[in-house]
Design a protein that fits this description.
By secondary structure, the protein is mainly alpha-helical. Helix content is 63%, strand content 12%. α2 (28-56) packs antiparallel against α5 (129-156). 28% of the residues are buried.
């Protein structure tokens, strides 16, 4: 089910901009990540409930050998696919692929927990070890689900680019600043696999449109040379006009 949701989200996110979605459909990925996070929450809750029940009322284990074999095979398959998805998600900056990979990674952790828990009971005969390991696995999965939901929420709220990226962008603007050129209203945001930046460039009002435009394009080319996937929008304003400073704050 999680894979189907991820596939649908990726197909929607890959659609180009249209008359109703001028900035594309990339935010669809966040819905998939949120669904993955919720599903992980549900799985963790079920594991915790059954773990606590077994802790209070230990039960003998049955068909341990078959259970361990299935768990080890599942762990191997989930581990390989999880690594592939997470690497692809980082390469393509896709939260959906990362979320799906993290979801499978929690399945890997679950399978490892099963092997450890069942194996310890098999070796020691202490049935209480099985629910203890299950509760520890459930808590770890709960933390993974929380991270996915938090990341999805931040994306839907137009979270800014990482602090290091924003600082580097400010350095680039500062290097271009002079008595004739200034900048303000720098804003960045992340939308799925896409990233956006906008800023206001203040130049002398006596400059021709072409001169101001050339200065802006040169700056955007410099930014894009370092951040090729960044969509940059610049707004020219006359540096000596008081109205140019009324919109310099984030609001």
């Amino acid at each position: 089910m999680a894979a189907i949701v991820a596939l649908i989200a990726l197909r929607i996110a890959a659609k180009p901009a249209d008359k109703n979605h001028h900035f594309g459909h990339s935010k669809a990925e966040y819905f998939s990540s949120a669904v993955e996070g919720v599903m992980i929450f549900v799985a963790a809750s079920v594991i915790l409930v059954f773990g606590i029940q077994r802790l209070l009322d230990p039960q003998p284990l049955e068909q341990v050998g078959i259970g361990l074999l299935i768990s080890m095979v599942a762990a191997a398959v989930n581990g390989v696919v999880a690594v592939v998805l997470i690497r692809a998600g980082r390469r393509h900056n896709s939260i959906t692929l990362r979320a799906d990979g993290n979801h499978l990674m929690t399945d890997l952790i679950t399978s490892v927990g099963v092997v450890i828990g069942v194996g310890l009971v098999w070796l020691t005969g202490w049935e209480i070890l099985d629910p203890i390991v299950a509760i520890a696995v459930g808590l770890n999965i709960l933390w993974t689900g929380w991270r996915l939901v938090s990341e999805s929420t931040a994306g839907l709220m137009d979270e800014a680019l990482p602090k290091e990226t924003n600082e580097r962008l400010r350095e680039i603007l500062a290097a271009r600043s002079s008595d004739q050129i200034d900048f303000h209203a720098l804003r960045t945001r992340v939308s799925g696999a896409r990233a956006f930046m906008e800023m206001h460039m203040l130049v002398p009002g006596a400059w021709s449109v072409k001169k101001g435009h050339d200065a802006m394009e040169d700056l955007i080319d410099e930014i894009r040379s370092e951040f090729p996937d960044l969509h940059v929008t610049g707004h020219l304003e006359p540096i000596e006009d008081p109205r140019s400073y009324e919109d310099q704050h984030l609001d």
